[in-house]
Every structure is written in C-alpha cells, then in structure tokens.
Design brief:
single chain; about 375 residues; mainly alpha; Four Helix Bundle (Hemerythrin (Met), subunit A); 15 helices; 2 strands; globular
C-alpha cells in the first residue's frame, strides 16, 4: 500500500510540474510573434498547439486524482481536495473556450492578455487565451494538494511550539475549510455564470494561502520563497473603502522587520483590527437590522459575526460560497487570535517570514471580503 501512495505522490508531483511548464510555454508566444509577419496568425497557431497539449495533460491529471482518492492511506483532507481538483480539472477540460465564463478568471491581471490587447480582440485569439487562465487556476489548487502531503505529515504549529489545544484547533478549522472548498468547487457548474470568474479565481488562492501559513508554522525545512498569487494589491481597495485602514496594514508590515520582542503581538493586533474594521464597515449594525429580523443573527442585540458575513455574501445566493467564506474567516482568526493572546504559543519563535505569511494571509482575506461585497 505504501508503494501505491508513493507512486500517486510522484505522479501528482509530475503533473504539477508539467502544468507549470505548460503555463510557462505561453510566454514563448512573444518569441513567435517577433518572427512572424502575421502576428494574428502566429498567435492563433501558438496558442492552439499549446491548448491541444493541455487537453492531453488534463486528461492524465484527472486519472491520477481518481487513483489517489482510492488509496486508503490518504487523509480525509487529501481526499476532499482530490475531489475538488478532479472537479476543477473536469471544468477546465470541458469548458467551451469561446463562451466559457472561466475565460475571464484572470482577465484583470493577466500580463499576456494586457500585452497583446491590441490584437486580442479577435474572437479566435481571445478564446484560446482562456486555456492559460484556467491552467493557472488548476495549477494553484493542485500545488496545494501536493503541499498538503507534507503539511499533514507534520504537527500543526510545531515550529512555534503550539500547545496541544491550539494544534487541535488549527487541525479542526483547516479540515472544515478544506471540506467547504471542496463543496464550493463542486457547485461551480450550478453557480450564476457571472459569478463563476470570481469564485474560480479567489477560492483556490485563499485555500493556497492557508496552506502556506500552516506550512510556515508547522513544516521544517520548507522553501522560503515569496508567495505570488497574481492578485491586485489590497492597498488600492483599502484606500477606496476607508483610507484609515492603510495605517493598520502598514503598521503590521513595518513591525515585521522590528527588533521589538513584542513584534508578534503588534503584527497580530494590527491585522485583527483590520479585519474587524472591514467586517463592521461592510456589514454595519443598521444595515444588518434592516436586512434581517432573525433572532439567530443577533447576540445581546448586536449582529453576530456570522450574520455580518451572511450579509456580505447576500448577493451570491450560494450556500457553499457563504460556508466557504465563514470557514475561511474562522481559519484565519483561529491562528491570529491565539497568536495575539500569546497563551498557546511561544511568540518569540515566530520568524519574520512566518509573520509575513500571516500578514499576507489577512491581506488576501481582506481583499476577498471587499470583492465579495461588491458582487451583483
């Protein structure tokens, strides 16, 4: 049985590498363009060839994920994530690249799309670019699955000497978050088409960043690479929403490089306050009271956190998304609140990279909530 597990892991790692190479291959389009007298023809030809390679690659990925789910030794989280990634693989493979909403997933920050905007208005070119978008989407989620193997082999929070209670809380909230991610991805085909790009873009990134934070505080000898999601900076969104919030996030960033022995508390206090201001700003008491009279949404006459999150998600009418948002928030706060209290962890053990991962995790969550609130 161990050999089957090892084979599945190696196969998954190989597919992730191949998908990464496939994404990089699109950059070769520029080289072809410079050599061609017809940019449109060259672009169409290059992207079409790569798209056909992707189709075969995705077929192999689907088979590997199906095999991995059948191995008894894998954890429930790994099995749930396999289901989510199998669904994503199917969606990417079956999507009509001409009409699919998935083609808009990375449209707002895709460097290739921006660079050739002048010629990408041709429908045949625009449709083929979607394979780059969706391949990146799948690569993010598949990478999370491979990293999950190393994460679950470790004890959650071991690098910061987390207490057993804290470690159990991290494990429990992460399992709930994984299940909610699985449920959200599996319901994508039933989501309102205009909402698909948002869900498909942000949910894999939120999950990936949670894995990153947990790796930083749990797994020894991990690579200290910078996290890159391709998402826009949260600063512009914060400035538009409430310029005063930039002071909080900048305070957290500045504390990262501080020699102050209490820097961990400064960082976690700043990001916790940032979350509270955003939550209450997006879902103020008077708006909640006008929206709902459900007694379950109130505690001591004040809206609960769950009520505020339900209000923020109200335009989606998608229970799996609401559950994902709730579990996303709970996963972040379980970590931040315990670190801020300092009762279940040795704060002096927190490195600058670990604290930076926590700040970036909260930045991503803040951006996610701000984007959810704007959905129509």
């Amino acid at each position: 049985m161990a050999n089957l597990m090892d084979d599945a892991v190696r196969a998954l790692q190989k597919q992730i590498t191949l998908i990464s190479q496939s994404t990089a291959a699109y950059n070769n389009v520029f080289a072809d363009l410079t050599k061609s007298t017809s940019a449109i023809t060259s672009l169409q030809s290059s992207l079409a060839k790569q798209f056909e390679r992707d189709r075969a690659l995705l077929g192999n990925t689907s088979a590997i994920l199906s095999q991995a789910r059948l191995i008894s030794e894998v954890t429930s989280n790994f099995r749930d994530l396999s289901r989510a990634n199998a669904c994503l693989t199917s969606l990417v493979s079956a999507a009509s690249v001409t009409d699919s909403a998935m083609s808009k997933v990375f449209a707002d920050h895709n460097a290739l799309r921006s660079s050739i905007a002048a010629i990408a208005s041709q429908s045949s070119v625009t449709s083929l670019l979607s394979s780059l978008d969706t391949t990146r989407l799948l690569h993010t989620s598949l990478s999370s699955q491979y990293r999950l193997l190393h994460l679950e082999a470790a004890s959650f929070g071991s690098r910061i000497e987390a207490s057993k209670l804290f470690a159990n809380d991290l494990t429990s909230t992460f399992s709930k978050f994984t299940r909610s991610y699985r449920d959200l991805v599996e319901c994508i085909p039933a989501i309102q088409e205009s909402h698909i790009p948002f869900v498909a873009k942000y949910s894999p990134i939120e999950y990936s960043l949670e894995v990153d934070v947990l790796e930083q505080i749990s797994v020894d000898d991990i690579e200290e690479d910078e996290v890159s999601t391709g998402l826009p900076s949260v600063d512009d969104e914060l400035a538009t929403f409430d310029n005063k919030l930039l002071t909080l996030i900048n305070g957290a960033r500045q504390s990262l490089a501080s020699d102050n022995p209490d820097r961990a508390r400064h960082v976690t206090t700043s990001v916790r306050e940032l979350f509270t201001h955003i939550l209450h700003g997006l879902a103020p008491d008077d708006k909640i009271k006008a929206w709902s009279t459900d007694v379950g949404h109130y505690h001591e006459k004040r809206p609960t956190r769950r009520a505020r999150l339900l209000y923020i998600c109200r335009n989606f009418s998608c229970d799996p998304l609401t559950a994902f948002v709730e579990n996303d928030v709970q996963a972040v706060l379980t970590l931040v609140n315990s670190l801020n209290a300092g009762t279940h962890v040795v704060q002096s053990k927190l490195t600058e990279r670990q604290l930076a991962a926590i700040v970036y995790r909260m930045e991503s969550l803040a951006l996610f909530l701000l984007k959810v609130s704007k959905a129509e």
